[in-house]
Structure formats: structure tokens, C-alpha cells
Design goal:
CATH architecture of the largest domain: Sandwich
Radius of gyration: 28 Å
Structural class: alpha+beta
CATH superfamily of the largest domain: Immunoglobulins
Oligomer: single chain
Helix content: 25-40%
CATH class of the largest domain: Mainly Beta
């Protein structure tokens, strides 16, 4: 009788231990699979998203001197960026634009929605469509209150999902 009672107690203890282990491990496994699915979806989106900065230039006259050629009262840098991926870029004003003029310090330039009247700031216009979709080019206009110095510059555009491109140019 002692052996039967001992066996029953060991079986009950084993069932309790298995239940505790399952209750501890199962939530971790399900949350891990959810996290892996989320990371996989984000990586898939990033792989499908690609941009290419085609050209950048300052608002210069034919002699290479800064001039307000579009008469908006500011000195502008124009950047053309093409969506070469297979995903549409949504919420363009959330893109990050950086300009580097002395090859050491990057300056973040806010979209005019966030700049609240401060300069420099940027705005955009879709060149060949209404959305920044596949094979569509967007012109970014960075406005300054005073002319930039002549020299070499780097521009970096980062879309909201983290994909970016850099471009070197001279003015």
C-alpha cells in the first residue's frame, strides 16, 4: 500500500511540475513568435523600400552665385529623391533630412510643419504623381534665411521606416 501511495504522490507532483513549466514557458514562446513575426514584417518592409537621391543643387544663378531665383525670399537647396523600391513612402513630412557642409557636423533640418517658423526648414513636392509611390520623384526644398557658403556638401534623406540615402554635391 505504501508503494501505491508513493507512486500516486510522485505522479501528482510530476503533473504539477509539468503544469508549472508549461505555464512558465508557453507565454514566453508565444511572445517570442509574435516578436519574430513583427521583426520579419519590418525587415520585409525595409527590403521593399529604397530611395535614391538623384540630384542636389543650390539656388544659384548662371555664374554660381546665390540668388533667390524663385522669389520666395529665401535661399534654397533643391534635392530630388526617387522612390526605387516597391513600397509607397507614406507620411513624407516625417522623413529626416540632414545636411553636412564641413564634412564633420551633420545638421538636422525639420520639415516646415515641425519647424514652427524657424529656419532652415524643408518642404516637398511630388514631381510626377500625388503620392510618393513606386518610381515617383519627390523634390525637397530646403530654405535658408541667408546664403550658404560655397563648398562641398553631403545631404542625407531618411524615410520613416529607416531606409536612407546620401548624396555628395558642390555649390
Amino acid at each position: 500500500m505504501d508503494k501505491v501511495l508513493s507512486t500516486i504522490l510522485l505522479v501528482v507532483a510530476a503533473v504539477i511540475c509539468v503544469t508549472l513549466v508549461i505555464n512558465a514557458v508557453y507565454p514566453a514562446i508565444t511572445s517570442s513568435s509574435g516578436a519574430l513575426s513583427s521583426v520579419s514584417a519590418r525587415m520585409n518592409e525595409r527590403i521593399k523600400s529604397q530611395i535614391d537621391i538623384i540630384h542636389a543643387t543650390g539656388e544659384l544663378d548662371s555664374n554660381g552665385v546665390w540668388q533667390d531665383t524663385n522669389s520666395n525670399g529665401y535661399f534654397d537647396v533643391f534635392v530630388w529623391v526617387k522612390n526605387i523600391g516597391t513600397e509607397e513612402v507614406v507620411d513624407v513630412k516625417r522623413c529626416d533630412v540632414f545636411l553636412n557642409g564641413d564634412q564633420t557636423v551633420w545638421a538636422w533640418i525639420p520639415h516646415n510643419y515641425y519647424a514652427i517658423g524657424e529656419y532652415p526648414q524643408w518642404d516637398y513636392e511630388i514631381e510626377n504623381g500625388t503620392e510618393w509611390g513606386i518610381a515617383t520623384t519627390t523634390r525637397i526644398e530646403i530654405s535658408y534665411e541667408s546664403a550658404l557658403s560655397s563648398g562641398e556638401y553631403r545631404i542625407k534623406v531618411l524615410i520613416p521606416n529607416g531606409v536612407s540615402d546620401e548624396y555628395y554635391f558642390s555649390m
